[in-house]
Design goal:
By secondary structure, the protein is an alpha+beta fold. Helices cover 36% and strands 19% of the residues. The chain has one domain. The strands form three sheets. A four-stranded antiparallel β-sheet has the order 2-1-3-9. It is globular and about 40 Å long. The chain starts with a strand and ends with a helix. The mean pLDDT is 91.
């Protein structure tokens, strides 16, 4: 049902994927103990040390597709998934609950950021793309990705006052995989 995407081992300068991941793989990685110590240590750091440690220590993925290398031109297949990043939230838990209740965009995966003050929200653009394809049949998922990202970002700002990290419009955007034992995954994916 849901397409795979690329998983990369740390550091962020490593642009060659290690393997393909599914949403279930990502969920098990995030809720398991793999990044527990790394996440805990990151949260004790600040400033440049925080940034350098995160870039050098966290594995990551590209939720939007499978790549031969992490570069937009090296996309092999779009996954129909888009990850929205919310940084420096005043109340992470309230926003977590708010996104889970959204009536237009079902949450597939939702987890707290490595720093603990943000969220990563993964949703599918497949339904909207298929509806749009009826009117614009020449457009593909790669071309549709930035439009979808912009539209959903606009909706989130107007509906909830949430500002998304604009870098999510980049198909090859890296998403660090932290430890979050309370991450959410859509029940359909577990079946």
């Amino acid at each position: 049902m849901f397409n795979d995407f690329s998983y990369f081992r740390a550091p962020i300068t490593n642009t060659v994927p290690h393997s393909a991941f599914s949403l279930l793989d990502a969920y098990h990685y995030i809720t398991g103990g793999i990044a527990k110590e790394t996440t805990a240590h990151l949260r004790t750091l600040s400033g440049k040390a925080h940034s350098v440690y995160k870039q050098n220590s966290f594995d990551y993925c590209t939720f939007s597709g499978i790549f031969s290398t992490r570069h937009n031109g090296d996309l092999l297949r779009h996954s129909s998934l888009v990850c929205f990043d919310f940084d420096h939230l005043p109340n992470v838990e309230d926003t977590f609950k708010l996104l889970l209740k959204d009536k237009y965009f079902p949450t597939l995966l939702l987890f707290r950021s490595p720093s603990g003050d943000g969220l990563k929200w993964v949703i599918s653009m497949e339904r909207q793309f298929l509806c749009r394809e009826k009117f614009f049949p020449l457009e593909n998922q790669v071309d549709y990705h930035p439009s979808f990202f912009k539209s959903v970002s606009y909706y989130l700002q107007n509906e909830y006052g949430l500002t998304t990290d604009k870098s999510g419009k980049d198909i090859a955007r890296a998403c660090f995989l932290p430890h979050d034992p309370d991450a959410y995954i859509c029940e359909k994916i577990l079946q």
